[in-house]
Structures are given as C-alpha cells and as structure tokens.
C-alpha cells in the first residue's frame, strides 16, 4: 500500500467518522470520499497495467479497489437518495476479504503489523455492515468513534512512519497495534453509550469508511 495513499485513507476515515457522530454534514464529507475513492481506483489500475503479471504487485494493488469502491459508494450515497443497504452488504464482502488479506500478511508476506492493520479494517467494515446492511442504528455513534480512532491507528501514523523511512514490522509492534486497536474499540463503545450530542446520523449518512 502506498504511503501517500495510506495517509489519505487516514484523512477520509477521520472525516467519515466525524460524519457518523454528526459533526460533518454528509454532502460535505462526500467531496473527500470522491477524491480518495477516485485515487484508490485510478492508481491501482495504473499499477496493474504496469505489473507485467507480477503476482506480489497484483496482490498489493487488488485490495485497494475494495476501499476505493467503498469511498466512491459513500460519496454517491451522500449526494443522492439511494439507500445504504447495498453498501452495507458490500462492506461484509470487504470485511471477509480483509480477514483473508490480513492472514496472508502474516503467512505469505511476513508483515505482522499490516496483518493486524488489515484485521482491524475487517472489524471496522463489519461494523459498517451491521450499521448499514442490517440497520443497527444504535451502533452509529460507536462506529463513528471507532472510525476516527482507526483512521490514525491504521492510516495516519503508519503512513508517516513509511514516509520517513522508519517503518518496521515485527511481532512486538504487531502486539502494540493490536492493543491499540482493541482499546480503540472499547473506547468507541463506551463513548457510543453516551448518545449523540450533535445529532444522530441516519443510515443514509452512516456510509463512512477505509482504507487504501
């Protein structure tokens, strides 16, 4: 995953999380979703064209489409009257794929840190499925907070380590990311119990999501 693309994954997840907790209007969030979604569809296409059938390169680019399509889907939902159920069930597909890619990061790629990051994304997209696909509106606020936390744990922070050439991957760091993700999930549900002080997002506005 490109370090630049990962940085903007952090940005779009942060904005979408703020949308879910009612701080950013859906139409305003749609703009960044279109920008990042387009980037994560165009760039992988260029990579695949230039890959010369190199399987590791193709594997690295394939997952980007899952998130690129998600962000474009979110943007479309925010500027139209289309319901979010389709995005919810697509999110279940993304979550399942993220579990597989996460497992392959551990076994095939040998990158336990990104293995944990992909599994964290799987949890986040599963929450999107519950929220949009099954209509669990009570999860809106908790999902929004988890999206905000995940934006930085899996996007912004690792992106800056990659951009500065200081990224490392080992079992100890993978455990640290796991603890951070678990704490973020617990904190998100704790904050979710407090209600939505800035106005509850509808399932239509709940189309927030991640990564590159």
From TrEMBL:
Which Pfam families does UniProt cross-reference here? AmiS_UreI
Looking up Gene3D superfamilies in the UniProt record yields: 1.25.40.600
Topology term for the membrane: Multi-pass membrane protein
Its keywords, alphabetically, are: Cell membrane, Membrane, Transmembrane, Transmembrane helix, Transport
InterPro entries hit by this protein? AmiSUreI_transpt, AmiSUreI_transpt_sf
Q: Write out the GO cellular component annotations.
A: plasma membrane
> Does the keyword field hold Transmembrane helix?
yes
Q: Where in the cell is it found?
A: Cell membrane
What domain of life?
Bacteria
Q: Which residues cross the membrane?
A: 6-24, 31-49, 55-74, 86-107, 113-132, 139-161, 173-192
Give coiled-coil spans as residue ranges: none
Do the record's keywords include Transmembrane helix? yes
Family membership: Belongs to the AmiS/UreI family.
Q: What is this protein called?
A: AmiS/UreI family transporter
Organism in which the protein naturally occurs? Arthrobacter subterraneus
Source organism lineage? Bacteria, Bacillati, Actinomycetota, Actinomycetes, Micrococcales
């Amino acid at each position: 995953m490109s370090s630049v693309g990962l940085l903007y994954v952090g940005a779009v997840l942060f904005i979408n999380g703020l949308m879910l907790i009612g701080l950013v209007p859906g139409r305003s969030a749609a703009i960044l979703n279109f920008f990042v979604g387009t980037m994560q569809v165009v760039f992988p296409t260029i990579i695949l064209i230039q890959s010369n059938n190199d399987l590791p390169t193709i594997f690295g680019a394939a997952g980007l489409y899952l998130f690129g399509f998600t962000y474009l889907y979110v943007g479309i939902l925010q500027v139209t009257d289309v319901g979010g159920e389709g995005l919810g069930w697509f999110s279940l597909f993304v979550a399942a794929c993220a579990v597989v890619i996460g497992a392959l990061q551990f076994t095939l790629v040998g990158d336990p840190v990104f293995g944990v990051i992909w599994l964290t994304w799987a949890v986040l997209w599963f929450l999107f499925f519950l929220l949009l696909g099954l209509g669990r509106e009570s999860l809106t606020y908790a999902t929004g907070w988890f999206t905000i936390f995940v934006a930085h744990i899996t996007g912004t922070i690792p992106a800056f380590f990659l951009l500065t050439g200081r990224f490392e991957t080992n079992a100890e760091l993978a455990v640290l990311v796991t603890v951070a993700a678990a704490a973020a999930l617990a904190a998100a549900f704790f904050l979710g119990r407090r209600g939505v002080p800035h106005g509850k997002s509808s399932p239509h506005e709940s189309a927030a999501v991640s990564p590159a």
